[in-house]
C-alpha cells in the first residue's frame, strides 16, 4: 500500500538519521535523506578538515546544493522534516530542500531534531518560516538520551500528536 507520510531529514553525525528511521517504522512512512552535494559530513574516511568544512557549510551556507531527491512531498498527506539543532537556524541543506520543494508541502507537517542542549524552539520557528506553515507537532531529542526510555517517551508523545492526522489522510486517499 502507498505510504501516506514522508520523512525527510538532514544529519551531520547520524543521530537525526536514527530518529528518522525509528519514526519511519512507527508511522509506516517513506524516509529520505537530504544530502549535500559532495561528501556527506558523516561519510567514513573523511579527513578532519573536510569533515569540519562540510559541517560548517551545512550550518552557515545560505543555500547549499543538494543531491536530487527521489520522493516528492506532493505525494504525501503528512511530511516530517528533521535535522540537528545548530545555532538556532535551519541547516542550509534543509533550507535548500524547502526552497526546492516547499511549495509542494501538504498542510500537515511536523518537525523533529536531535539536539545537544535544550529544546530548539528558535530552529523550529525558523523551520516553520521556511516551510510557510506551523507544525502539527515537534519532537526534540537530546543526544544524551537517544536510545533511552526517555527517548521512547518523547517519540510516543510526538507520534500520538500526529496520529489524528493519519486516519483522515488514509480516508482521503481511499476516497480519491
Ligand atoms: C557546529 C555545531 C553547532 C551546534 N549547535 C547546537 C545548538 O545550537 N543547540 C543544540 O542543542 N545543539 C547544538 N549542536 C549539537 C547537535 O545538535 C547534536 O550533536 C546533534 O545530536 C547532532 O545531530 P546529527 O547527528 O543528526 O547531526 C551543535 C553541534 C555542532 C557540531
UniProtKB/TrEMBL annotation:
SUPFAM superfamilies: Flavoproteins
InterPro entries: Flavoprotein-like_sf
Designated name of the protein: Flavodoxin
Lineage, highest ranks first: Bacteria, Pseudomonadati, Pseudomonadota, Alphaproteobacteria, Rhodothalassiales
